[in-house]
Specification:
Largest interface: A-B, 36 and 36 residues
Number of strands of chain A: 15
Strand order of the largest sheet of chain A: 6-9-7-8-10
Helix content of chain A: 25-40%
Number of helices of chain A: 12
CATH architecture of the largest domain in chain A: Alpha-Beta Complex
Largest sheet of chain A: 5 strands, mixed, barrel
Radius of gyration of chain A: 21 Å
Oligomer: homodimer
């Protein structure tokens, strides 16, 4: 057994690594494809043949075989297990209701800490698209080496444009860490900037996009969580104490609903950076958070013969003098005539028609539908 | 009984009048709403609460109570009777397959002639929109008076723009007919013109649109049909001879498939005009043949609060910064964001997305689908 071997000799740093995949987030701007019952991570948005969560799991697999934990809503249990049939029960953490990323990642850290306080966790969202995989894995290996030196390590994405949709990471001096030649200190995390500010970030060469990837010793994660969010830390500790006992469900059911909702960035990453405990490995891979339908157009370019990118096996699309994206979750015939850069998302109970330019505004429709009580399609 | 009273005194010219409604034509440019199984005339395209065929029947009703004949495809029997439950069996003529307007109208004429050779028929397509009804009826009354003098009378529509989508009628001198002060001779029917030619027609004030409305003694219709299309005339005579006998089905089944396909304009109206037998009553009503979805936008303007015109009871439409027409035959939620003058037609098995400007090109989609074998949605 791997653990027996590890115990018999100085523990290999990679053997301490456990993956954590928080699988939450409906992906409102991908409505009506992505919705409460079938969120973004359960879709194959790239045409690879894998859902985003399956691809995320496979990307981590070689780094932590059998040691990847998924944190998701209890309503997604069946769908997640259908995607990851090999996932062991001990690696599936179910939330009775969404409590934001600090609770999800913090609970994973607290459970893992009780199983082995030396664990280094790596948290990667279930709904991002990353290529090539080997470049990603090399960055994670550097992050693991860096984390072993006592850092919370984020993998920063080199910005390709002055995005106002992401937070940024401001890097400091290089760190001299064996096995992690590209590790840098992190001075601070900054919120989504205005466009002029984002331009400045891009020109300085000092800023990366914050993709929410964190590799860290669970003990260090919990230390910062305790310092910054003592109430959340106390609740998570109570749940984690009983997690691997027959009291798991009872305790979680009692404590979880009372936990504060806060993002991991505020609860851990930002204060840890201020304390000098955060490092960054530059991610030199292609990364996309598939934030809207325009992203799907980028990830799945139209074929040579057509200006229409079609996603969906059953769709029969006829396009005449038209361009754009068709996402079909039905077997209907779809005819497009004389319309450019259109985005059409066709599902059994809801239809979206917009343009690539307005793809970000889809959440307005979702907000309206929620306000008007049409929640059956959300 | 009306007929006994009529027989007892000189027959009132209006008592000779019988309506005929040819209900054919799929309305290809209204796909996927209008299709083989549910053609244009079976839809309420105006939002009046009546299908087009019901409105057509009601418009004729006061002119020929109980004396309106419908000629339609055998596949539409049930749908037509659902719309016109009062239609007597003797007034329903079923075609086993479409044979164009000369066969449909000619068969009605031949059947009516055998019932009473003095009948004046008035043929009005099932899928036109006309308001106000009393102005239409006044025009038909003038047409009946004119027909009684031995004319095939068409009702010409005063052109509102130089349309290239309609044929035109060139009027001649006024005719002095009692009860028909606006009757004119017709010099000729002309085919759909080019735009410069259409402009000339409009400026001359001598041309009307040909809406395919014909009021004529059945004997005169048949005389011209016999002269111009003897083969068609012979076939129709054979069917009509047996129509009101037990041999109806057998004879029709044998003869109908062999009949030539030709429009009534070529078979009767144009040669009759050349012979000086055609007159015209100007129709001073508003007329629309609902040729495409842009027409639906005209006929059903958007409400004050919205730039989106919605047709369909079940639709839940959310529009943000969008304008155009939504025709819904489902109960799906439809969200439109950042798109102008769009035309969306949402049916259970087919979806059309186009613009008002391109509404005429919908038939290209239908042609493509037919060619590619996707006939299940046509």
């Amino acid at each position: 057994m791997t653990t027996e071997r590890a115990a018999a000799q100085p523990q290999n740093v990679f053997d301490r690594f456990h993956g954590v995949i928080p699988a939450g987030g409906v992906g409102t701007r991908l409505w009506p494809l992505s919705r409460a019952a079938a969120p973004k991570f359960l879709h194959d948005l790239t045409g690879s043949g894998s859902t985003l969560i399956r691809a995320t799991y496979d990307r981590l697999g070689p780094l932590c075989p059998g040691r990847t934990m998924v944190v998701t809503g209890v309503v997604h249990r069946g769908a997640v297990l259908a995607q990851l049939p090999e996932l062991e029960d001990t690696n599936l953490v179910l939330e009775s209701e969404p409590k934001d990323s600090a609770a999800a990642i913090g609970l994973a850290a607290a459970i893992l800490y009780r199983r082995d306080p030396n664990i280094i966790m790596g948290s990667f969202a279930a709904d991002q698209v990353i290529t090539p995989v080997d470049v990603f894995q090399a960055a994670v290996r550097e992050a693991i080496h860096t984390a072993a030196e006592g850092y919370i390590v984020t993998i920063g994405i080199e910005p390709t444009h002055p995005s106002t949709g992401f937070g940024y990471i401001r890097a400091g001096e290089p760190l001299a860490i064996e096995g992690a030649p590209s590790a840098h200190a992190v001075i601070e995390f900054v919120e989504k900037p205005s466009e002029p500010v984002a331009r400045g970030y891009l020109e300085s060469g000092k800023y990366s996009w914050n993709a929410g990837m964190f590799v860290a010793p669970v003990a260090l994660m919990l230390k910062h969580l305790e310092a910054n969010e003592p109430e959340l830390y106390a609740g998570l500790s109570e749940i984690a104490d009983d997690w691997d006992t027959p009291r798991r469900v009872k305790t979680a059911r009692r404590v979880w609903p009372s936990l504060p909702k806060i993002a991991i960035d505020y609860a851990v990453a930002e204060p840890a950076a201020a304390a000098g405990d955060v490092a960054m490995i530059p991610g030199r891979f292609t990364w996309d958070d598939v934030g809207d339908f325009a992203a799907i157009g980028r990830l799945r370019p139209a074929t040579e013969n057509s200006k229409i990118m079609v996603m969906g096996e059953g769709a029969r699309v006829f396009a005449e003098n038209a361009s754009g994206i068709v996402v079909s979750d039905t077997k209907r015939v779809i005819a497009l005539i004389g319309i450019d850069d259109v985005v059409i998302v066709d599902t059994p109970d809801a239809l979206l028609v917009t343009t690539k330019e307005h793809a970000q505004e889809v959440k307005k429709a979702v907000e309206h539908l929620r306000a008007s009580g049409d929640t059956d399609v959300l």
